[in-house]
């Protein structure tokens, strides 16, 4: 509510990190709606999210921990609207590109996220981000010190400095 009061125009997402009970979920959905939250990520623990198959949630739901590999996709497609792919969890950029295609073929939106990590970990995720509907690549922000040639965050864009790519050009992607 404090963020929304200061920046009412910004997209806002909530990551419950598998921490909600069904009662808490039911209580929070109207609050999140009132605040204009545009996405709720992983409200229930893996295995406890089957109830989502019977809920018509007005806020798009994103699977994170519930999607580990293609075998999870049928259940995830019945429960969620978005799949968050993290290169750290899925096996790297090549595997993430393959998974993104399968997720999209299943009719779901694709998101790229990250763990806390340096700009070197964000660079390949930045490439995947060009194909995604949602991008959350803020890992270096939480570090006391990043790599010398790190990414930069300016005006809602993620900028990969030329040193990351080994050439003089600069690339930018929406956060």
Describe it for me?
This protein has 175 residues and is an alpha/beta fold. Helices cover 33% and strands 18% of the residues. A six-stranded parallel sheet has the order 1-2-3-4-5-6. The protein is globular, with a radius of gyration of 17 Å. 29% of the residues are buried. The mean pLDDT is 92.
- What is the typical, i.e. mean, pLDDT? 92
Work out the helicity level: 25-40%
Q: Which band does the percent of strand residues land in?
A: 15-25%
Structural class: alpha/beta
Uncertain residue ranges: none
Strand order within the widest sheet?
Answer: 1-2-3-4-5-6
Helical segment count? 7
What separation lies between the terminal Cα atoms?
A: 21 Å
Shape label: globular
Secondary-structure topology with pairs:
Layout: H1 2-6, E1 13-15, H2 22-34, E2 39-41, E3 61-63, H3 73-79, E4 82-86, H4 87-90, H5 93-105, E5 109-113, H6 119-129, E6 134-135, E7 152-154, E8 157-160, H7 162-165, E9 171-174
Parallel strand pairs: 1-2, 2-3, 3-4, 4-5, 5-6
Antiparallel strand pairs: 7-8, 8-9
Can you give keywords for this protein?
175 residues, alpha/beta, 3-stranded antiparallel sheet, globular
Give the gist of this structure:
The chain is an alpha/beta fold and 175 residues long. The chain has helices at 2-6, 22-34, 73-79, 87-90, 93-105, 119-129, 162-165, and strands at 13-15, 39-41, 61-63, 82-86, 109-113, 134-135, 152-154, 157-160, 171-174.
